[in-house]
Each structure stands twice: as C-alpha cells, then as structure tokens.
Design brief:
about 350 residues; about 25% helix
C-alpha cells in the first residue's frame, strides 16, 4: 500500500470535521493543479486549465463517525452517530476521540451479556445503550481533556489483506479521494485545450450531499463525474440479483441510484462512459443501486441541470471500522476517469 493511500484512509474527518483530511488532499492537489482552494463550506477545489468547457470531478472526503454527546458522573462518554452506521458494528470497537489535547483512545461498551435478562439478550443493543470508556473515573477528570462535540473516529487502520485486496478505515470515500488525486496527476500532463477541470473533495456528503450542492452551484459545470464507493455483493448472505458487484472485476459504472430517488445517469452519459471503457479495454461492471446515493444525486440537479456520470469502486463492509477493496478496481476508476474527461473535452456531449 502506498503512503498516500494509507494517509488518506487513516486521516480523521467525520462529516463537518473535515479539516485534517482536507489539508492532506489540498497538499496533494497542489502538486498537479494550477490553483487549489478550500471554500467557505469546507470543500477542497483544485483547478487545471482555463477557459472553455467546465468539467467537475467530485469525490467526498468525509467519513461516518460519532460525536461526544454526554459524559456521566462516572466518566463514561455517550455519543451520537454521524452518518449511517449500523449499531451492530459498534460494540467492542476501539475509537479515537479527537480532543484539544490530542487523540484519546476509548472502547465502546455496554452492559455485559452475563447481566442481561432474556429479553435484553434477544435483541440487538442500540447505540443509545452504549458508552465509551477511556479509563477515567469521573466526569470532572474526563472534562479536563474531552469536550462535548468532539469528533470520534474508528481507530486508524490500513494495509494489505492479501495480494491486491486491501483494507482500511474510511474506505468510503478516501478511496475515491485517492482516485481523484491520481486522476489529477494524469490530467495535469495532458494540457487539454479549451477545458477547465475542477477536482473537488466535497464535505458532508454522508449527512445529506451538502458539499456537492454548494460546490456545484459555485462551479456551475458543463459536465460532472462522481467518484465514490459502492456495495460489493461477493460475500455470504447476499443474493446476486440483489447485489452482483465483485471485487477485482473492475470499476463499477453506476447508472441509477436509490431506485431513482438518487441520480439517474442520462443515456448519452452512460454511452460515453461505456465507450471510453471498451475503447481502452478498461475492466468494468454495471451498478444499479436500490438504496444509497452519491453526490451525483445533488450535482446533476444543480441550477438548470448538469450531465453527470458516476464511477464507483466495489467495497465490502461499507460504513464499518474497516472496509475491504481491490486496488485494481481503484486503478481502473482512475484510468476511466481520465478517458471520460478526454472524451468530454474533445466535444462529446457538450
């Protein structure tokens, strides 16, 4: 695993608390872009080229996590979830609370099963019955370090699981951020004529696609391409007709999100992306999503509408302490992103 990918996966950045991950991305984009800014909402926007068609590549940089809500008299910390996290993945996990004095390690706990009654043991423990133990014995001790509102992330982790299979915290969507930076690297050397390319790491996607809304309104692009992760179906318990994407079989070309409540990619955009993939022998899969959506859902409705495509990287265990992906699928996403931008720049669609 290269250092950039590891740094992106491990950096903190719960929705609304993206300053650290934004700094990492800004520093990388500055190597390849003519200009880089962080706007008033917290989106990082890099720009390559000047004049002509405006092409926006967007990937969100925030991660799901938690925020400190309450500290009881015995020093146990209660929290609210930020973004869609299943309560079932929380219990027993190690977390980091990012405080004014640095990161504090904690363990998510609840009443032990030995002391539960039959009714309690028969149901899943809700997160409201969980707490974080940081090894201090009173509220006053905890408050010397931890404050209400501090962000909480899953403990940092990233590495190689086996061969091309990698794992890490915040794969959704730091993997997309890695693809964005790799795409910027390639595009910077192409010097496309009459084209402005905006490379955007959006904030607060996990809590309502908010950064995609503000950044697309500001840029007013002629075309947008979204880079995100999506659900892989190659694990036990999932029927292929429900989710058929597999790790190692290429980037997923998303055509429809959330049964149409999210983005419905226009036919001319679908055709362009698939032609780019086939012409360049880029391995790919087709993604139709029943649930969940990307920044594409808000960007393609910006102003009078934006022709928008979506590339997704199949991932196992999304919104959990560790996700699993195949690095070759991410490389396919970067390669296809470049080819799509070249096609649009040459006059296809717009």
């Amino acid at each position: 695993m290269d250092k950039l990918l590891k740094d992106l996966l491990e950096a903190p950045g719960v929705s609304g608390y993206e300053e650290n991950i934004a700094a990492v991305i800004s520093a990388e984009l500055e190597k390849y872009c003519d200009s880089v800014e962080t706007d008033s909402f917290g989106n990082v926007i890099g720009k390559i080229g000047c004049g002509g068609k405006k092409i926006m590549l967007a990937t969100h940089m925030d991660e799901v996590g938690m925020v400190v809500k309450y500290i009881n008299d015995k020093g146990y910390i209660y929290f609210v979830k930020v973004g869609g996290i299943s309560d079932g993945v929380l219990l027993g996990q190690r977390v980091k609370i990012l405080t004014k004095n640095g990161a504090v390690t904690g363990i998510i706990g609840t009443k032990p099963p030995h002391l539960m009654n039959d009714a309690e043991r028969a149901k899943n423990v809700p997160h409201t019955d969980m707490f974080i133990d940081i090894g201090l014995a009173s509220r006053d001790e905890v408050l010397k370090t931890v404050e209400i509102g501090d962000q909480i992330i899953f403990e940092e982790n990233a590495g190689v699981l086996n061969g091309d299979f990698y794992f890490g915290k915040a794969v959704d969507n730091r993997l997309g951020c890695w693809v964005l930076i790799k795409t910027a690297e390639q595009l910077s050397s192409l010097k496309l004529k009459d084209t402005e390319i905006y490379l955007v790491a959006t904030a607060q996607e996990e809590v309502g696609l908010k950064g995609g809304k503000t950044s697309s309104f500001k840029i007013d692009p002629d075309f947008a391409l979204i880079i995100d992760t999506t659900v892989a179906g190659d694990v036990p318990g999932i029927d292929e007709k429900t989710a058929c994407l597999k790790l190692g079989k290429g980037v997923a070309v998303t055509m429809l999100e959330a049964s149409g409540r999210g983005a419905i990619v226009p036919s001319k955009v679908r055709k362009l992306i698939l032609e780019a993939a086939r012409e360049n022998s880029i391995e790919h899969q087709i993604d139709i999503i029943d649930g969940g959506m990307t920044d594409g859902a808000i960007i393609y409705t910006s102003r009078s509408g934006v022709p928008t495509g979506i590339l997704s990287i199949p991932t196992r265990y999304l919104h959990a302490p560790s996700g699993v992906f195949n690095i070759k699928d991410a490389c396919s996403a970067a390669e296809l992103s470049v080819k799509v931008v070249q096609k649009v720049s040459s006059g296809t669609i717009i």
